[in-house]
Specification:
Layout (H helix, E strand, L loop, with lengths): L10 H13 L9 H9 L5 H77 L1 H4 L18 E6 L8 E2 L4 E2 L1 H22 L3 E6 L10 H5 L5 H20 L5 E5 L22 H10 L6 E3 L8 E5 L2 E6 L9 H13 L3 E6 L6 E5 L2 E5 L8 H5 L7 E8 L2 E9 L2
Helix pairs in contact: 1-2, 1-3, 2-3, 3-7, 5-7, 7-8
């Protein structure tokens, strides 16, 4: 066996090789302890002294080897823990991705189901709705520089009411829509409007957000959506015969929310947004009608004759705080100088003016419901029509339809 220190061999490994060779694996058994002493310890010792020293060194080396082994195991364990944590993190990412994928798949499945039911309902519209305005021909009316803003608010199509103040169902709804459209056409002709801004302010159908709502409904929700969309489409077509440019704006109310519990609901997750989708398909061939793009919020912005108007359903807003709050917000965020704010939801007429900004609540086409009856609240069914010219709001009509 080579007694010289090998190239690259550390002093500790060299000492271990000589001591283990003499005492453990016996490869140096024939060499006397005294001969190894100078190699192991750097000086000469007697055979007896060198033997005792090497046995002591052997014990120390064994303790060092044991400690190094434990450190190696600990390092491997630590590395394993890191890998385990990484695996767990990757697994959690996979679970999160799978959950999101499942959510997307559920949303797609739900949308496909709704689409299929809408198609079924659309195919039967000729029987369920039929033509409301007959054959309406284009009218060559004299026009001037005035524009109309007509608001369709709180129709609650599908709701059934019969109390001392009001009677309402789907047939009465259609009759009232006809009355509103005909009255609006007469006023548009009087003011010689060159444009009509039609705002669908929400709660067009009654929905199914509460048990009491479902009890007071005479149509399934999907049927309500489809049928009221067709009624609105026919109303827009009729209006477009008497004004050269019709701009349609859509927002959503609270009765179309997908989750009945208001606290758990995402405000924008609303079935009423389907109405706008259907109208785009239904009216795409009417060159006089322009479906305005979704603003990305529940707010609708209209510019009539250079004057900015903001409209929102109103379930989250107050007629008395909105002039100061909303005008400040929209001037800061969108640089819009709002002059008029239009709200719905409350089913009664009310106006408030502050700092030159008019805030108004539209009436409801459906009129007083059972809740209003129990609270002894009453308001005639009506819709709102505004006429603007270059100087601003010129005329305000509350179109009665009872």
């Amino acid at each position: 066996m080579n007694l010289e220190q090998l190239h690259g061999e550390s002093d500790l490994d060299y000492q271990r090789r000589l001591i283990y060779g003499k005492l453990v694996d016996k490869t140096l058994a024939d060499i006397d302890f005294s001969e190894l002493a100078s190699l192991v310890y750097g000086q000469d010792y007697s055979s007896d002294v060198a033997r005792r020293m090497m046995y002591g060194s052997r014990k120390t080396l064994e303790l060092v080897d044991k400690e190094m082994e434990q450190l190696s195991v600990a390092a491997q364990t630590s590395e394993s823990d890191v890998k385990i944590r990484e695996l767990k993190a990757e697994r959690q990412k996979m679970f999160d991705q799978r959950r999101e994928l499942n959510k997307i798949e559920r949303d797609i499945a739900r949308q496909e189901y709704i689409d299929s039911k809408l198609i079924e309902a659309a195919e039967s519209l000729n029987e369920t709705i039929g033509p409301l305005f007959g054959e309406v021909m284009y009218a060559d009316n004299e026009i001037e520089n005035s524009e109309a803003v007509l608001v369709f608010s709180d129709w609650h199509y599908g709701m059934v009411v019969e109390n001392v103040f009001n009677k309402y169902d789907t047939d009465i709804c259609k009759d009232r829509v006809q009355a509103v459209v005909n009255n609006a056409i007469n006023r548009i002709k009087v003011h010689k409007c060159n444009a009509l801004h039609l705002i669908l302010l929400g709660d067009a159908f009654h929905g199914a957000i509460h048990t009491s709502v479902r009890v007071a409904s005479e149509e399934l929700v999907v049927d309500q959506i489809m049928q009221v969309s067709e009624i609105i489409a026919q109303a827009i077509n009729a209006l477009s015969m008497f004004v050269p440019n019709v701009y349609v704006y859509t927002t959503y109310g609270n009765h179309g929310r997908v989750v009945s519990n208001k606290k758990d609901s995402i405000h924008k997750d609303n079935l009423e947004r389907i109405v706008g989708w259907w109208l785009r398909q239904r009216l795409k061939d009417n060159e006089r009608v322009t479906m305005m793009p979704d603003s990305g919020t529940e707010f609708v912005f209209v510019n009539a004759c250079g004057h900015d108007i903001c409209a929102v359903h109103g379930d989250l807003d107050s007629v008395r705080t909105s002039p100061r709050l909303l005008t400040t917000l929209f001037f800061k965020e969108y640089q819009k100088n709002i002059e008029c704010i239009i709200l719905g939801d409350k089913h009664h007429r009310e106006s408030f003016e502050e700092l030159g900004v008019v805030s108004m609540i539209c009436g409801a086409l459906c009129g007083s419901d059972d809740y209003a009856n129990e609270k002894r609240l009453f308001s005639k069914p009506n819709q709102l029509l505004l006429i603007f010219d270059e100087n601003g709001l010129d005329a305000e009509y509350r179109i009665r339809c009872d």
